[in-house]
Write a structure and sequence with these properties.
The protein is of the alpha/beta class. The protein contains 12 helices and 13 strands. Bound molecules: flavin mononucleotide.
């Protein structure tokens, strides 16, 4: 199969080698995901903190999150017959509830990140895992993490994930690296890709199953996509480019913060999730650095590891504020190349230009 024409995850056929990365809180909802899926890519709804959004009550909590996720999946389904996914973070207290909801709603695929999916969460059992039509794809940032997950699933479930996403150090949002290792040569996306493919070959052979690898983090244009496909990826995952689209579910202020950013404005921050993250620098982040942003309360304990008495700020509140356009009380996560964005386009236009660039670059690489 010509790699530029799409890829398969089991019986799922995606007509483009492009996955739109799930982006929370509320950045990729049904609007963006359905538009990407409709244009032939794989559109992903973020399940993080939906109850924090005004339209789902604004107070957080597991029940509001479940209702929000159900509503977003159903809305996206009405808008497109394309391939749709849900992104779920293991670091959240309602990880199990979100996974169960996505499976009940028969989403095509779940992407599981911000922690390693080994032991199944409460509410999801092995029978559910092996009988559902929903596919599973963990998100990892090292060959070691891939090995750990696949070995665990092999040993305990006699079943392996259907695909894998690898996220390199240039990605947006939370990063699966220690802050001081982001620049290490072993941590480039290309090196991780090589290592992960080598880990997967054992399991592909054992299960007689192809495990597609989706590589993301800093992928900006068609040349980047061609290069990763050439190096062995089956598809790419892109987040930042999809933020700067009309259909992206974030506020215009959020999108404009990318457009007005310069290279030096893209910074690494510490998140209460326990991982570093990449964001557009702003007054709010300056205040966090100066210790002026202590959370005064906790609406509900969204993160397994967060103690609001110790946390430097409330990340759920900050990200929701930014999504809704209040960047004085929050900040925008972004990928390392966000500063290159110079305008907002329609998803279809973005995908058309990526396709053209990809085809031209691919032809050159074949010569
Ligand atoms: C605003 C924003 C929010 C994100 N939120 C999440 C998230 O909730 N869960 C997740 O797994 N990845 C998240 N990511 C990572 C993206 O899904 C994607 O993998 C990554 O941004 C790819 O790098 P790129 O932005 O350079 O294309 C986020 C990225 C951005 C830019």
């Amino acid at each position: 199969m010509d790699k530029t024409k799409g890829f398969r995850i089991g019986n799922l056929e995606i007509n483009l080698p492009i996955v739109q990365g799930g982006m929370g809180v509320g950045i990729s909802l049904s609007g963006l995901a359905a538009s990407v899926a409709d244009a032939g890519g794989l559109g992903v709804i973020s399940s993080v903190g939906l109850g924090m959004l005004d339209k789902y009550g604004g107070k957080g909590g597991s029940i509001a999150n479940i209702e929000g996720l159900r509503a977003e999946i159903r809305k996206a389904r009405e808008l497109t017959s394309g391939v749709l996914g849900v992104n779920i973070m293991t670091a959240l207290n309602d990880f199990g509830a979100m996974l169960k909801t996505a499976i009940q709603e028969q989403i095509d695929i779940v992407f599981i990140g911000a922690g390693l999916i080994t032991k199944l969460p409460e509410g999801v059992d092995l029978n559910m895992l092996t009988t559902t039509k929903t596919k599973f794809a963990p998100i990892v940032s090292s060959p070691r993490a891939a090995d750990l997950i696949f070995r665990y699933w092999d040993k305990h479930y006699h079943h392996i994930p259907d695909a894998i996403v690898i996220e390199g150090p240039l990605a947006g949002g939370h990063l699966g690296f220690k802050r001081d290792t982001l620049d290490e040569p072993v941590n480039t996306l290309e090196e991780i890709l090589k290592g992960v493919k080598s880990v997967l070959s054992f399991f592909e052979e054992k299960y007689k199953q192809i495990i597609p690898v989706i590589a993301g983090g800093g992928v900006f244009d068609g040349m980047d996509i061609a290069s990763l496909l050439h190096k062995g990826a089956d598809a790419v995952q892109m987040g930042t480019r999809f933020v700067a689209t009309e259909e992206c579910d974030a506020s215009d202020e959020f999108k404009q913060s990318y457009i007005s950013s310069k290279k030096e404005d893209i910074v690494i921050i510490n998140s209460p999730v326990g991982l570093p993250g990449r964001a557009v620098n702003c007054q709010y982040l300056e205040e966090v650095r100066n210790g002026e942003r202590k959370p005064i309360n906790c609406l509900w304990k969204c993160l397994k590891t967060c103690d609001f008495h110790q946390a430097p700020y409330c990340i759920a509140r900050a990200l929701t504020n930014a999504q809704q356009g209040n960047l004085k009380e929050g900040f925008a996560f972004c990928g390392a190349n966000a500063y290159k964005i110079d305008g907002i386009v329609k998803v279809k236009e973005l995908i058309e230009s990526l396709k053209q660039e990809l085809n031209t670059a691919w032809e050159k690489l074949q010569k």
